[in-house]
Write a structure and sequence with these properties.
Number of helices: 19
Low-confidence stretches: 1-40
Number of domains: 4
Number of strands: 24
Largest sheet: 7 strands, mixed
Strand content: 15-25%
Structural class: alpha+beta
Radius of gyration: 26 Å
Shape: globular
């Protein structure tokens, strides 16, 4: 807003200025002008929260309903709309047809560089977990770009500044970080307490520790997530809750094993400092796809080309369609050149040496299968916009090079994968932990059931070895009472968030979002909705070395503290805050406000 003398202050002058269009007013000035003219909106503020039903997620619907009750107490008419997970993903992540959603963030956003695709404004119109909020903040953009190029103390300071900006402007409100609860059959042998079933490496650990007296050893997993039985496309964002199963089918150049990024499909990765940095990658000898075709450096180069543009540059309008699921990693790669069948040179984008290895964790895809999936997708012969077949194909049967191969599936009911004989990870002399190099499991069987309770009972009855998806805290007593069944509780790195579509009226106002966040009691949600199997936090990097001390939870949220205590909302304090943000109340309903 300009100086006081530059803005008309009497009612007649304001009306004249508004009528002529001669004066351009900022949001604050506009609100002041509305007050002077007697204008105010009579349209109540209404919001809708989209989320998952209870049979798809044990907590999401209950969290959304609790939040809606606080919003209603604050005078905001709020509706909760549960829907099937695939449809929620499509509406929220592909078509931006939402005002707010309650979902869990993918685990990949624990990597600080992954926040680039989550929050940078240049991804605001991209599909998938690429800034689905439409968040635009120049300070955040600058910090996201700088952290890629900086190292050491400079990178840490930049990331801390970024997190403070995000906590203040609230593109999403972090609700709670749940514990992952599972039931496991104690007689199976593995150390369930150290196993992480959110990752393919966790399944490989189980496969190496499993015990059975039968001729064929099968790890039996029961799940409430049907999507893995209908779609095994690692690029299809609406079909992925995580990449554990597709990660068994496809090999990346490197995997995180016991906390270290370790060459996997690559025999060696020689990083070269430079401007930009580069790497000489040498693949392992005699690696073959599951259809027995040879895997070569050309497949690796093809994969990075496909992830950067799933049309491979063949689109008539020359519009790139990058893969939303791996855009963060692939955007770190500037060029891949093939030296020979086993060697390739990777030139990275302008990024620090500590950041670029993240680019080597994408699934490598067979060119002879995926090259024919670059055309624009169509339904009933009608093109569906800038989406290619690569992003919507169900990819069954999948052809990968991973330690497990697809055998069969029954959609929405079951899936069977079998161990690949001769996979490089189990070859003699392979430089991997024993539980990878000497696998004990011959097959992985996935069975789908309708609820958490049924999943736990399936394990308790001896018909499954472990619940592959986490179950709700309400099942803990059942697990404790069941003979031969073990309760497995692990800290999760996937928080529930209330995501805001900042493209929509009111939600495009950071002050409105900041006030909304103060209507939510995160501590209460963890204690009462998740029965204490959760912890509060302010941002997704909580618990990492990059998290600033001033954002640590200390009896409350240090940035957007709750308007109340123990879940009880101080309605008068909320109303005063909304009035200060430019809103009014009519008959108890929140109305108006500058946006």
């Amino acid at each position: 807003m300009g100086s006081e003398s530059s803005v008309p202050t009497d009612r007649r002058s304001v009306l004249a200025a508004l009528g002529s269009g001669a004066t351009v007013l900022s949001a604050g000035c506009l609100q002041r002008a509305r007050n002077l003219t007697g204008w105010r909106s009579t349209q109540p503020v209404t919001l809708r929260i989209k989320t998952l039903p209870t049979d798809a997620d044990p907590y999401a619907l209950a969290l959304a309903r609790e939040i809606a009750s606080w919003f209603r107490a604050a005078g905001i008419e709020t509706e909760v709309l549960p829907m099937a997970e695939q449809e929620l993903m499509r509406q929220s992540l592909l078509r931006t047809e939402f005002e707010m959603f309650v979902m869990r963030l993918p685990e990949k956003f624990r990597d600080p560089d992954a926040l680039t695709t989550l929050l940078h404004s240049r991804f605001a119109d991209a599909p998938g977990w690429q800034n689905p909020f439409g968040y635009t903040n120049l300070g955040a953009d600058e910090a996201l770009e700088r952290q890629r190029r900086a190292d050491g103390a400079e990178r840490r300071a930049t990331l801390e500044r970024l997190q403070r900006t995000v906590a203040r402007t609230q593109p999403f409100t972090l609700l709670t970080v749940p514990d992952d609860i599972r039931a496991a059959r104690t007689g199976a042998g593995p150390n369930w307490q150290v196993t992480d079933l959110r990752s393919p490496v966790g399944y490989l650990r189980l496969a190496g520790e499993y015990e059975s007296g039968s001729e064929e050893t099968v790890l039996r997993v029961v799940t409430t997530d049907r999507r893995a039985t209908t779609n095994l496309n690692p690029l299809a964002v609406e079909f992925r809750r995580g990449g554990a199963l597709t990660g068994l089918l496809y090999d990346p150049l490197a995997r995180s094993i016991e906390g270290e990024l370790t060459p996997w499909l690559a025999e060696s990765i020689d990083l070269v400092d430079g401007d930009p940095p580069s790497a000489r990658v040498t693949l392992r000898e005699d690696v073959r796809w599951h259809d027995d075709e040879a895997l070569t450096a050309a497949d690796v180069a093809f994969t990075y080309d496909l992830l950067a543009d799933t049309t491979l540059g063949d689109d008539e309008e020359d519009a790139e369609v990058p893969s939303p699921e791996f855009r963060g990693q692939s955007s770190l790669v500037d060029d891949v050149s093939v030296v020979d069948d086993r060697r390739l040179d990777v030139t990275f984008a302008d990024a620090d040496r500590a950041v670029v290895p993240r680019a080597l964790t994408v699934p490598i895809l067979p060119e002879h299968v995926w090259r024919d999936r670059t055309d624009t997708a169509a339904i009933g012969g009608i093109p569906v916009g800038t989406v290619t077949e690569a992003l919507v194909s169900n990819n069954i049967p999948p052809v990968g090079s991973g330690p497990f191969a697809y055998v069969r599936n029954t959609p929405r009911e079951s899936l069977r994968l079998e161990r690949v004989e001769g996979h490089f990870s189990a070859r003699e002399g392979a430089d991997f932990p024993d539980w990878i190099a000497d696998p004990a499991v011959d097959a992985l069987s996935v069975r789908v059931v309708g609820s958490d309770v049924t999943a736990v009972e399936t394990v308790a009855d001896g018909e499954a070895d472990v619940t592959g998806t986490a179950v709700g805290a309400a099942t803990v007593p059942r697990i404790g009472r069941a003979d031969g069944t073990e309760l497995v509780v692990r800290r999760s790195d996937r928080p529930y968030v209330l995501g805001y579509n900042t493209r929509r009226p009111h939600l495009d106002n950071p002050r409105f979002r900041n006030t909304l966040a103060r209507v939510v009691d995160e501590q209460h949600l963890g204690e009462h909705v998740l029965d204490g199997y959760a912890r509060p936090a302010v941002g997704p990097l909580q618990g990492t070395e990059w998290y600033p001390e001033d954002l640590e939870w200390d009896g409350g949220n240090p940035v957007v503290p709750f308007f109340g205590r123990d879940g009880e909302l101080n309605v008068e304090a909320v109303r005063e805050a909304f009035r200060e943000a430019g809103y009014q109340y009519e008959d108890g309903a929140l109305v108006g406000g500058s946006t």
